[in-house]
User: What shape does this take?
Amino acid sequence: MNLTLKIWRQKNANDKGKLVDYKINDVSPDMSFLEMLDVLNEDLINKGDDPVAFDHDCREGICGMCSLYINGEAHGPDRGVTTCQLHMRMFKDGDTIFIEPFRATAFPVIKDLVVDRSAFDRIQHAGGFISINTSGNTVDANTIPVNKHDADEAFEAATCIGCGACVASCKNSSAMLFVGAKVSQFALLPQGRIEATDRVLNMVKQMDEEGFGNCTNTGACEVECPKGISLENIARMNREYLAASLKG
Amino acid sequence: MALDSKIPKGPIADKWTNYKNHIDLVNPANKRNIDIIVVGTGLAGGSAAATLAELGYNVKAFCFQDSPRRAHSIAAQGGINAAKNYQGDGDSTYRLFYDTVKGGDYRSREANVYRLAEVSANIIDQCVAQGVPFAREYGGYLDNRSFGGVLVSRTFYAAGQTGQQLLLGAYSAMNRQIGRGKIKMYNRHEMLDVVVVGGKARGIITRNLITGEIERHAAHAVVLGTGGYGNVFFLSTNAMGSNVTAAWKAHKRGAYFANPCYTQIHPTCIPVSGDHQSKLTLMSESLRNDGRIWVPKNIKDVEAIRNKTLKPKDIPEEDRDYYLERRYPAFGNLVPRDVASRAAKERCDAGYGVNATGEAVFLDFASAIQRYGKEQAHVKGLNENDAALVKKLGQEVIKNKYGNLFQMYEKIVDQDPYNTPMMIYPAVHYTMGGIWVDYNLMTTVPGLYCIGEANFSDHGANRLGASALMQGLADGYFVLPYTIGDYLSKDIRTGKIPTNTPEFDEAEKNVRDRINHLINNNGTHSVDHFHKKLGKIMWDKVGMSRNAQGLNEAISEIKTLREEFWKDVKVPGTNEELNEELAKAGRVADFLELGELFAKDALMREESCGGHFREESVELDGEQKGEAKRDDENFAFVAAWEYKGEPSDAVLHKEDLEFVDIELKQRSYK
Amino acid sequence: MSGIFNSSIGRKFAMALSAFFLMIFLLQHFAINILSVLSPDAFNSASHFMGTFWVIQYVFQPILIFGVIFHFVMGFILEIRNRNARQISYAKNNGSANSTWMSRNMIWSGLTILAFLVLHFIDFWIPEINTKYIQGDLTGLLPNGDFRYHEELVHKFENPLRVAAYCLAFIFLALHLLHGFSSAFQSVGANNKYTRGLRGFGKAYAIILPLGFIFIALYHHFNH
Assistant: This one.
């Protein structure tokens, strides 16, 4: 199939940037979206143009590096997939496809479609851990039984890949689904309860300092999340936060 | 230089304990004055960085991704082995040790493997304490599954995302130290050289991938946890960015490269769909527990399937060749990875491949669906002869077990694997070879350590399923922190390592010259053009099955390709910006050197062992006719290569492998 | 505790609390208004009670006014902050693919309701305050000795334009509530398997209550 791509080009963080049109022909429906961009880039390089910069790494939907806003949706029109797992069979011959970076003040553009998501790292530096040394001098794993339901829910929350689709999709650029998932992952486990109060206060504080917006519960994040992280995690974070605020 | 593996004396079960009791320690006040560089933040690098920082060292950690959490350890699906014996099924440290050495086809170092098995149980304790949400049973205790054809259930898992959960555990430990300022994290930085001062590794040169800035970083010791080099094949299940550059630079600075030809080809990957293919996707090995592998018996059926005039499910049972069950009645579809991969290649080479490229075999769940469906119908007291009902019930069982994999398959291939057999083909997955290290995980360059997949030490010629995660974390959490202390105890009076020395000048100049060359080359072909060509040579001639003629051809072809690359590669843009083509060019340049050494190593090893199959070395008669033949008399050694300029000049050093606690045996799956 | 209302979650919480208060108020308001259809006498006595009982007038009325103002002001503050969180907008954004129109346009439904409130104050509240506290007539009676409340209400709904404005405003109120009700529960952390039923109740509330108000307006318009 033949497609028209409208791709955001921006030389660096200080450049203003603009959408540029590209034509691409003979796209196979079996290609992944990123493979289609590989083909475009190969073409641009051969023509002596600057290839389009985009983040990607594992290309199997787990590393969370790829981050494109395709036709108005984070990771494109398919559900439950990252950009690298989006296939061209989701599009039709003759389509025009808008490709933009994940946009948020807290995710500044580095170049073209590459953004800086280190805000997510900083939120986790503030409390995304259990304070235990890795000396190996812990108790035997089975001396901490965990209710299976809680363990499964903690796991569900922990499957977040930190891609930032929630922020990109949210009309308010809120990071609450991400932070909610991180808070929940620990809050649901007995090991994590010990520091639960400080953890949620510190992580939310850092989240606010990073300049993310406020959640207004539109639910867009949950729909666009490639891992289907549930809104219940935000509710849990709210509960944890309110309880922690009363305590602390 | 003679290779000294520094294995401690004494009975194997006491070696590690004795070792720990007798090493020198660094007191806490002195640790504050010692800097350590850790390159790579996967399971090995991440866990090492966190632990070293906890101990009090000043750690600088580097990764090329935008966050340490994206390292490719995250993609491991199946699980992590540990000799916990929670299931009471007879597991023990010895048994895990034995299985790992045997699985590695007797080409690993006993003492290292025993230590790995010994600390494995600790890993699980540690991870649970960190909040890793492993799968649990209803009673709240940890669940296990069996994996990779071993006789016990010792694999701990978190659905099909065990690597992700373990990496997030290591990452959270890192976060704590980054927050405390004990780890200084450098994201989007690529290591481009090791700096050796006075015979010791004292720093690295990096490139900031956003600004192009070339930076000097000094430390008292350097640790590489930079993963495997499977991307030398261009197509592999590795991440796009996975590369050999850090390890190769270390090699060029004096670290020996061991067993480069030991590569694991994983049998259950999604086949290549066309020339645009950029990487391959692994489907967990667990699928072989329920799927039956087959190709049609008749070539005309193969052609009809390729033309889409015949559906696979319409081929009657008697016209199907369940070749693994036919060749290996004892293990059937559960033969080890290398055996299953070669058998698939054998069928496809004979013309029985079932997709357009001729490189795919079926993995069929129809009989499992039938079996489970009947079972469920029986349990629920429903009609076992109602075909539609049985199918529905069976599909539900399969969905519960493999739902996420089936969904992933459907997204990529656009076929519904509940109703038509999956197509699979082997793909490069893991490299057992790597930088040679001694018992201390130190390379042949003093002060330069190598951990995880990047080193060669624990898996011999073939790695068991669910053991990669175990090794990465064992090295980083529990081994390196001890062994590096012993080395650093002699460095407490050294003081800060300066970066304004001739050694740093020289290393930085090398890096800059190379970048300038690439940027100003103005050739005609993109980096990928060369990478794909290299991959094709590697896959065709140094892939699943190798012979002397092919290997010799590969060596000369790679050499020619390398020369072409340097003359004709085209790298757009400048150094002073985010320039992925430039980063890729540097990596491919190193792959072009490694590839040749890889082939040279494969040529030297005139035996078949584990993932390395030499067509000249097969059993000629008897029950095992046609199967791989190991040659313990001549090849029971680690091949460690010393860099001498061109890969063809590399000098071989042998570390003889002694098997004291395990008897050497032929692997048999018949 | 001190910092809570400066945090994102604290603001959400405050927004939700004021919303709960307003939703309860709305229910009470409706309960009295519907009496105007069922029994003008009951409506008159209820209105007189509400209009003259000091607890209502001097305690609840100020709280209500504060609640309304707080909800609006906080809404604006959040809107501004949220807009700042994405300074460059998407060239193409397909919001309808992942969220409801209501959830994305709370500011617009809210502003419509605010405009309506201004009208409502001019219609009812300002004349009430004028009669009671400026002219000092606390009897609640017309010159003919009947209660004035029902009479005034009916009189207001004579003008079809006003009735149309009321109906429109209540449609926007329904849209606002369709998202707002469950959103408020989510904000205070009530979202789990036990609260699924709440969502159904929230939808019912969001549709039935504004419809009820519309019914009252139309009823008086066409019946008098």
Summary: The mean pLDDT of chain A is 96. Chain A has two domains: 3-111, 118-247. The beta strands of chain A are 3-9, 18-24, 68-70, 73-74, 96-101, 109-111, 114-115. Chain A touches chain C through 50 residues (CB under 8 Å).
